[in-house]
């Protein structure tokens, strides 16, 4: 469950029917009860239980796949271990907080990508879930953990960890950020948010409105059948030599010179196009998400739990 996930709320007016299908005693494991409960509903043909939910309730396979890099949501992520050998920074992660409850965004760095695979029904694809194991910064401390200046710029203290043991987040919920070091406070990093590649955030409502208006203007009200006006013409009957004027005689040596000149132009043009193409490929090659002179390698010491932080928490 990602940090800042659903919270259990007390309800003094809860009825007995709310606990009809809950585990009978404290010794019953929730995962085992959930597995049996979903299996029984599946056998009964309950419409609330889909094939994917049934497979997920049975639990993942014992073997998992781990990655040091992963592309999801339009972002290219690298773990901190992989990033240390590179000049680019792709390990910063962010999980959006709940706006209604006032939860702030959660910032951290990626440690590991884990792919869970589940058993599938016959002739079905196996459901897969991508988990990001992260180290989260302490955003609950508004003084020494995170701060927002008057311009709305967010900074985080990378030496303070979130005092909650919830390292995992769903890959589909994770966005990417960069951490830029400051000049006078080495433990603080300025958060720079980014957008996915080839992603353009256009207002959906305005696009639909104006798009419909344009379509209504250009659509023809009457359909014209132009197939009746088409006549087939045999190109073999068209003469390629004019017979109404006298032919011009050209010496053979001039024809040879023209052919040599045309061949030279074609060769030079081809080489020029190839050079330009190679230059464009080098300029637009995939080199990660670089932030120029602000590249920073977050060291392991930045995430060590200090005794002073533990005492203050």
Automatic annotation (TrEMBL):
Bias kind Acidic residues: ranges? 265-284, 297-313
Ranges for domain DUF4216 = 117-191
Which InterPro entries does the UniProt entry name for this protein? DUF4216 (IPR025312)
Please note every region of biased composition (Polar residues): 9-18
Region (Disordered) residue spans: 1-25, 265-313
What protein name applies here? DUF4216 domain-containing protein
Query: Could you read off the lineage of the organism from its UniProt record?
Result: Eukaryota, Viridiplantae, Streptophyta, Embryophyta, Tracheophyta
